[in-house]
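Tutorial sheet, problem 5. The two components below are modelled jointly, 691 residues in total.
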Amino acid sequence: MKIDDQTKISAIVKHNSASIDAIASVAKPLEKLRNPILRKIMASRVTIAEAAKLGGCTTEDLMNALKPLGYVYDDQTQTAKTTTEEPEPLWLRRPETHSRVDFDVRDMLASGNDPLKQIMQRYGAIAPGQVLCIINTFSPTPLIHLLRSKGAETFVKEINAGEYHTFFLKPGAATAVKEASPLNYHDEKSFHNKAMQFDGSYNAIDVRLLEMPLPMQTILKELKDLPQDKALYVYHKKVPVYLLDELYDMNFITHIHEVADGDVRLLIHHA
Amino acid sequence: MSDLNTSKAAAELAVLPFYAVATLAFFVLSVLLFISADYMGGHYFQPKLLAVVHLAALGWATMIIFGASYQLLPVICESPLFSSILAFASFILLTIGVYLLVVSFWFFQTGWLMICGGTFVLLSTLCYLANVLLTSQIFHQYSIQTLFMVSSALWLLFTVIVGLLLAVNLHQPFIERNHLDILKLHAHAGIAGWFLQLVTGVSIKLLPMFLLGRSQKERLLRYAFFLQNCGLLLFFADVFFTGFSSRALIWAALIAGGVICHMLYLLDVFKHRLPKPLDYQMKHSFLSFLFLAITLLVIPIVVISDSGHWSILYGTLIFMGWLTAIILGKTYKTLPFIVWNKHYKNLTGKQKVPLPKHLYNETLVKLQFFIYIAAMMVLVAGILSAVSMLVKAGFLLFIAVSLIYGYGVLSILFHKPKSS
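Model answer (structure tokens):
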């Protein structure tokens, strides 16, 4: 049988059930494949590449284990995938708008129970806009596929080799209206929190020394190239009242914090 | 900056009363015009028309310009208003002066009542001029915008002085020249000196701001300043020393050249703006410049024909067309901001606030725009065809415009923040 990175484990197992032992022997996390229940939910959803990721090994390791059973690796279709660290999505950094529910499933898995049902129950119980965090020994690819198909946003964070945190943002009304107000005043703390959501990904400009109408033009010029998930942090000497309507028309959300007289901070980002 | 914050309430006092009283004046003006529509066919020098022209020029246009200037001078000159108290004084003096003048013209009571009214307007003008000079510090910080602001204020002073002399002359004739020639000087110092130069100065600052565009062609503005003032001064010298003649067309052409330079500059700003649809406030401004262009085209006919209804049309285009259109639009680009500042500027703590444009109903601005266009079309048709019913219908539509505008202004002035 010819296989490649994208071949499903279930297809391999179907071809020859001896492959179960072969794959399970490669890495400890993959031993779950021996469990018939886990195999049922995982195998049909997981590809070779994903299994390698789950097991913390390479696709070559898996191929070497499968070769003696007569599987032929098809190099042609191998996609040169580089594993890059994805940045944390914005919704994960909103402490005040999204409370989080944690669920550690490591013990259940170790004792051979399938946590899927309980995970789905907990996911069903959280409110739209809330985040469910599954703590696990591997990245639960099948679960990610399943909940993504239901509209959830997901993010996997590797804490260490044996601990993965997978976050699921439940979609719904709350995410749609999460920032309905186009103009918001803040005290120091809430402005700081707001800015922290864009931690490291905001551009800062100081327009305090510019002559009218340069502050406005500078801000608009910066906003023109502002990526969707970034924010513009502006040091201003006053609330730019003439600009506020324009920002709204251009579909931006503005946060204002007056530090002192002549020292106003703005945080502007896409709606 | 200290004046801006320690006397925030005073700063509002320097602006908001002007809007309130001017809005009322616009309504009264529309009603008076409706009542006196029958006079619109004859000669312009008659009591009822003198009353409504002064109500339009001082009670409506100048009143709102004073208020807007006190708000915009700090923006244009980048320094706080010199004195809110002086500004409020100019409000009280102007209000008393205008209504004394209007009443004395309407009932044609020449004498102390009219002279008193003129004197109050003169005192108000002096307060305004002092504030403009001391806020702009034109001698230290030159910019073409402040130059226009200062020159327009000086022309206003000149206009008011000549007007006061004319009021005295009606009571106790002492001017040896033709009263109507001097009246032309008075009117045009007001129109081409005060209003035109002020609108030029303010528009070259505000339109780039609101259109989010800019132009590098500032030399056009220097030509505009030179041509507008030269034309006006030569017109004055000519009329004063040799009397009014069709030579006025040459001087009018110079001023028109100045206006064209101003328009070319704005056109350049318009071309270099951010691409976005124009709102109805901006459309009012463009309508206003259209009326100004038509006014300039009408001048030769007015000078040559010397018949009553062309002069009436000329005045109508200036006051009800050019100036009213720009005020109707610009009010929504100035007033909401000061009211917004009043309620939301120095907020601390976490809260959601409305946008300046959510202080009024934009649909009403749209409605106002279309009814206003209808009003002008019917009115101009009525004046040209000398059909009194059409003129009356036009003014009836103006009453409707003034009510919509009044509702809009009052809803902004009395905006109450929702307690959250």
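Marking note: Strands of chain B lie at 351-352. Full credit if you identified this.
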